[in-house]
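2024-03-11 09:14:02 DEBUG pipeline.ingest accepted 1 chain
2024-03-11 09:14:02 DEBUG pipeline.ingest length=250
2024-03-11 09:14:03 DEBUG pipeline.predict start
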Amino acid sequence: MATKAEFLGRIRAEMARTPGLFTVAAAPWPARPGERLALLRRELAERWPATLERFARELERVGGVFHRVASPGEVAGLVADLARAGAMERVVAWAPGALGLDLAGPLAARGLSAVAMPEGDVAASERTRLREVAAVADLGVTGVDLAIAETGTLVVVSGAGRPRSTSLLPPCHVAVLDREALVESLEQAGLVLEAWHDGEAGPAGGASINFITGPSRTADIELTLTRGVHGPKELHAVFVEQGLARPRHG
């Protein structure tokens, strides 16, 4: 058995034989990210239709499904239609304040079992119970903090009223967004994250920031692809033209 020094030495020797290696350097830290983000937001306010079109195209290329509704009031009907089409009955959603609309009541009126997460922080025992609710749900509804057009990626930040279990545990994930979430590229998304870190108003901080690009996919050593093993097997993004009534950030 080779020693650690011998093993690393062989790697260095092989790397030295590879011509044309590029120089690796850390990306520069953006100066005044809040000011740059304010400028970007003004530019995106004019370009959002093209950004949305690209996002929808890229989302569907990675296996997601794009929907568009005029107002927040239409979201419950769309979610109910998706549930009926998939023979789903149990729905869990972010808190109304985090989501920008109240879904539990309208979905219950349509015959579904719907639970909305509480608005604020909860005790550990209640978090455990709510996680169990999400684990048995058929469909989870969340908001979207960023929607990256370049890759069709949804960025979802966890926090009070917006637990990550809502997007990770149910087999079907429905993400609701408006134009405020749209950015054009991963580089722009990075600027938003830096601005949040630098003190700009952002979503309630939680344990994780999830980048979701299409439904969950897992492949074994023979490259046999399976959906839904480590996350939802269905992903739907619902764009609300009139906007959502949630606190703005970024």
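2024-03-11 09:14:41 DEBUG pipeline.report The chain has a mean pLDDT of 89.
2024-03-11 09:14:41 DEBUG pipeline.predict end
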